[in-house]
Amino acid sequence: MKNHQISTHLIHHPYQAPQDFAAPQLPVHKASTVFFPDVATMRSRRWLDKSGYTYGLHGTPTSFTLEERLCTLEGGKQCLLVPSGLAAISTVSLALLNHGDEVLIPDNAYGPNKDFAEHELSRYGIRHTFFNPMDIEDLRRKLGPATKLVWLEAPGSVTMEFPDLVAQVQCVQSHGALAALDNTWGAGLAFLPFDLLRDGGSLGVDISAHALTKYPSGGGDVLMGSITTRDPALHMRLKLTHMRLGLGVGMNDVELVLRSLPSTALRYHAQDKTARQLAAALQRQSLVAQLLHPAFAGSPGHSHWQQLCATQDSPAGAAAGIFSVVLDAPQSQVDDFCNRLQLFRLGYSWGGHVSLVMPYGLDEMRNLGRGQVAAGCLVRLCIGLEDGADLEQDLAQAYTQAFAQDWR
Ligand SMILES: *Cc1c(COP(=O)(O)O)cnc(C)c1O
């Protein structure tokens, strides 16, 4: 060893740091290669469970730890990490659907989920049908012999209608199909996706897909997703496809989520509180034709939200800090309103510390019409961690200037 060149010495260095380092934040274990002590150990190690380490793509202590904590957050038993929330959706669909199968997707689902079915799954001979999330009979009618997977979302993206999730899951599972929930909005905090019944009965989704990009990250600087299950056999089907697709996540990103995770619940409830304050203020304005926030009476599916997300201990219930309003004004004025906002920045995503605004054109997004959404121009607001009164002042100045109306 003594006669090696400096480059070799720097790589095969004898110093080993003492092992008893302990601090609030966990170490970041980054690796493609993982060392084995000997050939026999290498041959006996399995990558299919968390009993040992084989290769970075199959996990390191850092990703194993985040997976276990996410299981705790959502009430699941197994978890897979993927590079984005959308990758969580596409991996579930690819893993569980075969040529000739059909997937059902709510018409108000996260748009790229619908696009993935239309443009990718269709290439493999997998059919898709959109259903009305607010009409359980429409779902029941559309469940056919080829339906193997049904996506659910509570509430729907952008228009925020809250479905009867309990009835939907019962309907899907009694048909023999799998119920996969996009649980980004609930985030494991508004309701328990694997324990939907209050009376102690057992009913839960089969799969929870979560865009960790939103609340668990909380910083607007990480893209990641998770796929959580309770059934080991189902997890194994997902894990095999996940491995064969080569879906890994960077450990620096995993560390960022681990760093933010302890404050997820605090941020979620703080953003919920400010969002309701601002939604109530907007509801008073003359040009607001409809408020789309499931915690407000009159918002589509409010009673379903109440049943699932409000408890006797906490009658106010929990909701994510995101809502939409339909404005009875021309699109050009609504665009001007968005442009005039200063604290609310124009951008996609949500769950971070910066408040965001985005106008949406529903006509390009829905296949089954507007459903229970009023006519007008829709604007979605995602509430960050700024002071609520400052945010309301920002809404008021943009509203009065763009629409030449008083702020009440
Ligand atoms: C953002 C989002 C996703 C996708 O997450 P990415 O990490 O941006 O791919 C999926 N579903 C919902 C409901 C979302 O809001």
TrEMBL record:
What InterPro entries does this protein map onto? Cys/Met-Metab_PyrdxlP-dep_enz (IPR000277), Cys_b_lyase_bac (IPR006233), PyrdxlP-dep_Trfase (IPR015424), PyrdxlP-dep_Trfase_major (IPR015421), PyrdxlP-dep_Trfase_small (IPR015422)
Q: Report the cofactors.
A: pyridoxal 5'-phosphate
Entries under Pfam families matching the protein? Cys_Met_Meta_PP
Task: List the GO molecular function terms.
Answer: transferase activity
Provide the catalytic activity annotation: L,L-cystathionine + H2O = L-homocysteine + pyruvate + NH4(+)
The keyword Nuclease belongs to this UniProt entry's keyword annotation? no
Q: Which UniProt keywords apply?
A: Lyase, Pyridoxal phosphate, Transferase
Tell me the domain of life. Answer: Bacteria
What family name appears in the similarity comment? Belongs to the trans-sulfuration enzymes family.
User: PANTHER family of this UniProt entry?
Assistant: CYSTATHIONINE BETA-LYASE-RELATED
Which named protein is this?
Answer: PLP-dependent transferase
Source organism per UniProt = Comamonas nitrativorans
